[in-house]
Amino acid sequence: MNSNQQLWSTASQLLPGGVCSSARINSGLGHPFYISRAAGSKVYDLEGREYIDLCLSFGASLLGHAHPQVVEGIEQAVEMGIMCAYENEWHTRLAEKIAETVPCIDMLRFSMSGTETTGYAIKLAREYTGRTFVVKFEGHFHGFNDYLAYNYWPARGDTWPQVTPAVQGMPDYLQDGVIVLPFNDFERIEETLSERGHEIAAVILEPVNYNSGTILPQPGYLELLRRLTTEQGALLIFDEILSGYRTGPGCIQGSYDITPDLCTLGKAIGGGTPLSVFGGKRKAMEHVSPLGKAQHSGTFNGGLVAIMAANAFYDVILEEGYYDALLGRCGRFYEGVNEIMVRLGFVGRVQGKGARFSFLFGPVAEKTSIKNYQDLMDNEWGLLNRFYAACLNHGVYVHTMLHHGLSSAHTDGDIARTLEGIEAALREVMAGGPATDGSAAAPF
Ligand code: PMP
User: Fold this and answer.
1) Which of 78, 336, 354, 401 has fewest C-beta within 10 Å?
2) Is the CB of 114 under 6 A from ligand 1?
């Protein structure tokens, strides 16, 4: 038994599956892959072996692990007493930076997880409009709160037009508050908003659907959502928990020049510490208590450790040339992977936007248009899981999920090593390896 198996065996007695979050099971291996420490672009297993990290704390470590300025910020928070249920000027300083860079944000609030933050945004939209229904899109993930956990990655037969809870344990009546539609379907959204617009509080989406394979909005689709929601008095909410800061400080809304009414931010902004944000237009945010009746309160909201880390995060991303360097490397990496696949005669490609990307394996990679979740259901999950397991044999850590990323800590040397590792892993997969005991079919 190696150290990983030993820990898994002990941890499983206490933590279901041996993990603190179900998504941390590596389905290529059939068990968790434990990490003893992380630094910059690397993670280290329990035996100290080094891997280039393409998981990056599920997207929370855009600056790489333990960026020195983030560490300094955290040290400052420690000196100030690690306080969490108090306010000081650092909250306002960070809020100013966010409001200056994220187009839709005039006012905001800080929370912990993305799951709770998207839930708050929905409650605010309902309070603001006095309406109940929320439109969401199949394959768009917004965390496991009870309002939005529908049609995340439904199995065939459970897909739209069926509305399928993504988790058990939610009361059936909650389903009555949600309308699920396919992403990038111009007709369906027009039909829904024109027939039921007066009942709809909000339309929420991942403006780039990383959680189903980095599916981009079709030209004109975000514009259409913006026009229809404005016409109907519903709020347009961009869930940028994952997409935020991947393309620039203005997030996806800045890249596509579409300003929603509200947005949520999370993951990257905390520099690896737990911080999320919901914010938006003043007229909507003025409905948050004590100005209005939408409640938002919590002991850990805006805890100083995360606030100081996020202030440092902002200082780093606003440095001149930060995004040119990051996005330049990402582009070269995506081209490099695609070149390897063509050279090896492997049917696949990378689908990337900014600093996050997905692998498409098999015939889906050759589709000329990928509009929504159902277009990607045939991605070859079993093969992907074998590839992720093979990457571990070649010094690259890719978690078994639908999106992966690069950080600004990845150097040109790291990119070269990663491409070598990916090429070796693809060769191993093409030769029939490696054997995995993971669940071959499911992406999760
Ligand atoms: N929204 C999106 C778009 C996400 O990608 C995620 C997490 N992957 C969440 C919400 C939930 O965030 P958290 O894991 O912090 O609860």
Assistant:
1) 78
2) yes
Helix, strand or coil for residue 338?
A: helix
The preferred substitution site among 138, 251, 267 for testing ligand 1, maximizing ligand atoms within 8 Å of CB, is 267
Q: How far apart are CA 106 and CA 96, in angstroms?
A: 9
Q: Are residues 97 and 207 in the same domain?
A: yes
Helix (H) or strand (E) holding 358: strand 356-361
Nearest-atom index, ligand 1, CA of 112: 15
**Residue 268 and residue 368 share a domain:** no
Ligand 1 contact, 116 CB (< 6 A): no
241 alpha carbon to ligand 1 midpoint, in Å? 6
Domain tally, the chain: 2
230-254 pLDDT, tens per residue?
A: 999 999 999 999 999 999 999 999 9
Domain final residue, candidates 283, 317, 351: 317
Q: Give the nearest ligand 1 atom to 113 CA.
A: 15
Using CB atoms within 10 A of its CB, is residue 71 exposed (0-12), middle (13-18) or buried (19+)? middle
Does residue 77 sit in the same domain as residue 208?
yes
Q: How many CA atoms lie within 13 A of 133 on its CB side?
A: 17
Q: Residue of the nearest CA to atom 14 in ligand 1?
A: 114
Q: What is the mean pLDDT of residues 244-266?
A: 98
User: What's the token pair of residue 360?
Assistant: 């498409």
Tell me what pLDDT residue 1 has: 85
Percent of the chain with pLDDT over 90: 97
Domain boundary among 265, 282, 317: 317
Same domain for 39 and 178? no
Ligand 1 atom closest to the CA of 276, numbered from 1 = 15
Residue 162 CA to residue 39 CA, distance in Å, equals 44
Q: How far apart are CA 355 and CA 50, in angstroms?
A: 22
Q: Ligand 1 within 6 A of 115 CB?
A: yes
Question: Is 206's C-beta closer than 6 angstroms to any atom of ligand 1?
Answer: yes
Q: Quick one: which of 93, 117, 443, 115 has its CA closest to 280?
A: 117
* Pairwise CA distance, residues 131 & 171, whole Å: 20
Is 444 inside a domain boundary? no
